[in-house]
Structures are given as structure tokens and as C-alpha cells.
Design goal:
Blueprint lengths: L13 H5 L4 H9 L1 H8 L7 E5 L12 E7 L2 E4 L14 E7 L10 H9 E12 L19 H10 L2 E3 L4 E3 L12 E2 L6 E8 L23
Parallel strand pairs: 1-2, 1-4, 4-5
Antiparallel strand pairs: 2-3, 5-9, 6-9, 7-8, 7-9
């Protein structure tokens, strides 16, 4: 009897997030390395969180951020945890969600968590697969799927975000090779970048926050 694939806390099967560790998936991830670095360095002196599907890329050693990689049991990296994330409310200026929110919309737990931990006016950088790209044949059968930017904007607004009006295509179109340059709109690129700001702004000035200190390893939830 056939069995259903096991689901992760992110709502995708283990085979789905494992695809990003294959050669075609790594070509997509490598294409985004420059934009991820730009996101993490966009607000110097403020805290950031980067959630991704695979190891790789240069993580700033500034003591102000966390890089977590999806695993079958939740998240591993600077800390090990599940959902909800063991992080304080409104403590981060930047959150990068790199191919970790399911396209189908069955669970938006990570979008809700991003809204919770972002400062008012904080910036969300989200990388998503492009369902119109020929590259979709390379993730066919893995459990991955893509949604168009219009769908993501609607979901982001439901969680209190103000998404940018234009997304930017990134990554290969068919060949398994890194392609880092951005283009206006997703086009035929394998993925695209969509940014959004947390809508709510504080009515009074906020005091500067001290450096966030978390244990190197927390028990997995």
C-alpha cells in the first residue's frame, strides 16, 4: 500500500525541500545568494532572520542574526526549534523567507510568524518558485509548486504586509546554471523575489534595542 510523504513543520514533504539540495535546486539557491546578502546587510545594526531550504551562502558574522535551515523535524542552524519560533515579538528588522512557505496556502504559519517578529516597518524578503518558468519541469514530482505574485500579495496583505507592486525574476530559465541578475517581473525565470513591509508603525519613538542573545542550540520542539 502506498504511503503519504511525511510533512515538515513548513507544510511540505521531505522530498520537496530536499530538491533544493540537488543540482537543479542548488542552481536556484546559488542564483539568490547576492540578493540574500543584500537583504541581510540592508539595515546595519539591526537584527535579521534568514530561513532557507538548504545550507550554503555566506552568513554575516555580525552577532545580530539567525540563519535556520529547514529539516524534517523543524529548523536547525544557529538554534534548533519548531513552530512557533522561540523568538521575541517585534525584534527583527529583516526576515528572509527563501522557498520555505508552501505555495498552496494550506498553512501560512510562517507568514504569521514573520509578521509577529518583525518590527513595525520591518522588511520581508520572500523568494518563491515561478509556476510559468520552463524550469518547473525540474521540480516536477517533488511536491513543490509555485504561485504567481498576485496570489502571494493577497496572502501577504492578509498578514498585515504591504507588498511591493512589482516582483523581480531571478535564477535560471531551463539550464541548470546559476543566473543571479534580476529582471523586472518574474518572466521565465525559475524564481522571483517579492518584498513587503510590515504595515504598522509605532505611534511613539522606540528605544534602541540591545543585542539579541539566544542560546547556540535550543531543544527541538
Amino acid at each position: 500500500m502506498a504511503t503519504m510523504p511525511s510533512l515538515t513543520l513548513a507544510g511540505q514533504s521531505a522530498s520537496a525541500h530536499a530538491w533544493f539540495r540537488s543540482a537543479p535546486g542548488l542552481a536556484v539557491i546559488d542564483s539568490q545568494a547576492g540578493e540574500v546578502a543584500r537583504a541581510l546587510g540592508a539595515r546595519p545594526g539591526q537584527h535579521w532572520l534568514w530561513l532557507g531550504p538548504a545550507d550554503g551562502g555566506d552568513t554575516p558574522n555580525d552577532g545580530r542574526g539567525l540563519h535556520l535551515v529547514r529539516s524534517d523535524g523543524g529548523w536547525r542552524g544557529d538554534i534548533a526549534c519548531g513552530l512557533p519560533l522561540p523568538l521575541p515579538n517585534e525584534a527583527f528588522a529583516t526576515v528572509v523567507l527563501q522557498h520555505v512557505v508552501p505555495a498552496g496556502g494550506a498553512s501560512d504559519a510562517l507568514l504569521a510568524e514573520a509578521a509577529r517578529i518583525l518590527l513595525p516597518g520591518g522588511r520581508l524578503w520572500m523568494f518563491a518558485l515561478n509556476p510559468l518558468s520552463p524550469y518547473r519541469w525540474r521540480w516536477r514530482g517533488t511536491g513543490l509548486s509555485g504561485s504567481e505574485p498576485l496570489v502571494w500579495r493577497r496572502r501577504l496583505r492578509q498578514h498585515g504586509f504591504a507588498p511591493d507592486p512589482v516582483s523581480q525574476g531571478i535564477g535560471p530559465t531551463w539550464q541548470v546554471a546559476s543566473s543571479a541578475g534580476l529582471q523586472h517581473g518574474p518572466g521565465m525565470r525559475a524564481a522571483y523575489l517579492l518584498c513587503a513591509d510590515k504595515r504598522q508603525w509605532p505611534l511613539t519613538p522606540q528605544r534602541a534595542r540591545g543585542e539579541l542573545r539566544l542560546p547556540r542550540q535550543a531543544p527541538a520542539a
